[in-house]
Amino acid sequence: MTDLLALTEELCAIPSVSGDEAALADDIESRLRGTAPKLDVERLGANVVARTETGAAKRVVLGGHLDTVPANNNLSPRREGDVLHGLGTADMKGGLAVLLELARRASEQPPRYDVTLVFYEGEEVADEHNGLRKLFEQRRDLVAADLAVLLEPTAGWVEAGCQGTIHVRATFDGARAHSARPWMGVNAIHRAAPLLQRIANFEPAVVDVDGLEYRESLQIVRIDGGIANNVVPDACSVVVNRRYAPNRELADAIAEVEALCAGADHIEVLNASVAAPPNLWQPLVAELIGVYDLPVRPKLGWTDVARFAAHGVAALNLGPGDPELAHTPAERVDRGDLDGCAAVLAAFLGL
Amino acid sequence: MTDLLALTEELCAIPSVSGDEAALADDIESRLRGTAPKLDVERLGANVVARTETGAAKRVVLGGHLDTVPANNNLSPRREGDVLHGLGTADMKGGLAVLLELARRASEQPPRYDVTLVFYEGEEVADEHNGLRKLFEQRRDLVAADLAVLLEPTAGWVEAGCQGTIHVRATFDGARAHSARPWMGVNAIHRAAPLLQRIANFEPAVVDVDGLEYRESLQIVRIDGGIANNVVPDACSVVVNRRYAPNRELADAIAEVEALCAGADHIEVLNASVAAPPNLWQPLVAELIGVYDLPVRPKLGWTDVARFAAHGVAALNLGPGDPELAHTPAERVDRGDLDGCAAVLAAFLGL
Question: What is the mean pLDDT of residues B92-103?
């Protein structure tokens, strides 16, 4: 059995902040060609895809992103017994180590399902940089599957599906005037007040989907208005973030947010991502959960599982590390979590 | 009779954006020593004070600031018949030209009241730079008087007294969290919503003082909150500007604004200036208005008249140029306005 904590530490020693993933992609590609010689390995930019071709009836894709957020005084990995601290340990080089181990085993013996392992760039930044997006656009054959598992940190839970997310900018116009003569102008910030009150008072629903409780949310995440202390402001901009449960279509959710922004002069959808249904009834999902009777909870944030769901592929999150510590200086992963995740997935794949 | 339009043009040809008034102060001082040899001239920094000492029973101070706001493609004065266009023409080198003419006449014959002419720096910027403030602090004897007239542009109206102005920053605290799990945090922008609604709904009073209608105002002039589109904001800052009529004390007005900001975690008074009562009943004020039966209206914005009022000196605004065009690229003054203003003040002073 591979020492997954040591392997994770080696991967963490190669910095890979978004936009700078090439060195890590080189390392991953080299390891795959060395330890999993029977897999087909393809490289597209800083994306590496390794596949078995056994002719099995079904195919499972397992994915992990290569990039990390910027360092927060935690660039160098640090071992403390069976715990590895540092940037990328949980999000998600621990998951990449598990994927490399699955590749090695799948090269030694044929898995129960054909396996596609995707190591991709640009997950932590704007969608246009996302490697999975590029693969779906340019080589959809490489990411086709019957089930997708993303090794985002879930602390061993199956985090099923994911909520959709929408950002809308609502802008209110006004007209400048001296603040001693405000009736000569129109105060854009005052005009925004009812929107703020409406959203602050909104009570988001808790939605049951496949027995999981998706807790929706609606937040104003930014507001900006005013140009000088003696001038009636002529513009006020409000950014609203909506998270919605996977029982709804994206278009419906956008229409709801736009209705909540009624009164604004300009409503711009900054980004809008579909939700992914949990699909707990789907046979491969049910089988994976059943291997070890894994605990299941809904995924409230958005992940790339929605990208698979949008292409008709059932998808879930399952990976080592505590999601609450991702993107914090306290990020870490421990040996038990890595070994447990590898054991669950290996059992599911018959490896 | 001096050509006041030509004199204004000469003064405008010497740039004097706030902080850079020394050259204009030199020019004014030199002109005073040349054309008004009988006046006592004192120089403090970029402030010039010229005084008669005839032993008259009463003294009138007439003031004008040397500085201008930054140029707005209008740095060089431009003549068009009897109209002078450009930065500082109305605000307020036209007024300075009138003051120089009054100095010249007061040197030729004793005025009815002793006269103090104050040319001062730093009016268009933060209060700490204000030359009148320095004079009141360091040489109060130089600005003592029974009546103060500021030659701010009023288009020939007497703009009586002035409203007080207060800026308060109300800050709301929150706690950051991922916007998919907002219940883990506290949204500071949502917490500010009731304040916005309360101020947007506020109906400012119109207050009668000495028969003049002071129209108060209450405006949010700035708002800022949020750090990232996926993060529940942990701070929201709101700047409120209150303009209040001169029937009230500053402390009462501050207390009112602070009460309106109830719910904020931090309330900071950024600046707070007293109002100046119109004092239309005051004998010298009534006499000045009566010279030409001048039209009178309340001053809604704040001016340095309040500085005199705070020291017990009745004060009013009366000067050439349209106040609505001050600080705009369309700023201008015309010959009739300059000559009219000089005639009114000369008649009042018996010059």
Answer: 98
Q: How confident is the model over A143-153, as a mean pLDDT?
A: 97
Minimum-distance CB partner of A187 among B189, B220, B243:
B220
Residue type, B101: E
**Rounded mean pLDDT of B276-283?**
94
Q: Catalytic: A123?
A: yes
Residue type, A123: E
Task: Report which residue type is found at B118.
Answer: V
- The residue annotated as part of the active site, out of B27, B67, B124, B159, is B67
Selected residue of B159, B163, B230 to mutate for chain A interface (largest A Cβ count, 10 A): B230
Chain B positions touching A243 (Cβ under 8 A) are 179-180
What DSSP character marks residue A90?
A: I
Question: Which tokens sit at A168?
Answer: 């809308």
- Residue B333, strand partner residues: B84
List of chain B residues whose C-beta atoms are within 8 Å of the C-beta of residue A190: 196, 199-200, 219-220
Read off the tokens for B101: 């003419």
DSSP string computed for B182-214: GGGSB-HHHHHHHHHHHHHH----EEEETTEEE
How many residues appear in chain B?
A: 351
Residue A85: which pLDDT band, with cuts at 50, 70 and 90?
very high
What SS3 state is found at A347? helix
d(Cα A237, Cα A207) in Å, to the nearest integer?
30
H/E element, B64:
strand B59-65
Give the per-residue pLDDT at B177: 86
Residue B289: CA count within 13 A, CB half-sphere: 19
Q: Do residue A226 and residue B228 have CB atoms under 8 angstroms apart?
A: no
Q: Are A36 and A28 in contact (CB under 8 A)?
A: no
Q: Are strands B59-65 and B114-120 parallel, antiparallel or unpaired?
A: parallel
CB atoms within 10 A of CB B270: 12
CA A351 to chain B, closest CA, distance in angstroms equals: 36
For residue B63, which phi and psi values (nearest 5 degrees)? -130, 150
Confidence of residue A273 (pLDDT cuts 50, 70, 90): very high
Distance from CA of B10 to the nearest CA of A (A): 30
Q: Supply the ipTM of this predicted assembly.
A: 0.86
CB B150 within 8 A of CB B64: yes
Subunit contact B300:A180, Cβ cutoff 8 A: yes
Q: What share of chain A is helix, strand, coil (3-state, %, to 5)?
A: 35, 30, 40
Closest Cα in chain A, distance from residue B64 (Å): 21
Q: What is the pTM of this model?
A: 0.86
Average confidence (pLDDT) over B333-347: 97
Return the bridge partners of B159, or none: B297, B317
Q: Which residues of A touch B236 (CB under 8 A)?
A: 223
> What is the model's pLDDT at position A177?
86
B contact set with A (CB within 8 A): 163, 165, 167, 178-183, 187, 189-194, 196-197, 199-201, 215, 217, 219-226, 228-233, 236, 239, 241, 243, 270, 300-302
Q: What is the pLDDT of residue B102?
A: 98
Residue A154: name the closest of A315, A347, A349, A350 by CA.
A315
Return the residue in A166, A207, A229 with the most chain B beta carbons within 10 A, the one to mutate for interface testing. A229
Question: pLDDT value at position B325?
Answer: 87
pLDDT at A71 over 90: no
Residue A146 catalytic? Answer: no
Q: Is pLDDT of B234 > 80?
A: yes
Residue B308, SS3 per DSSP: helix
**Residue length of chain A:** 351
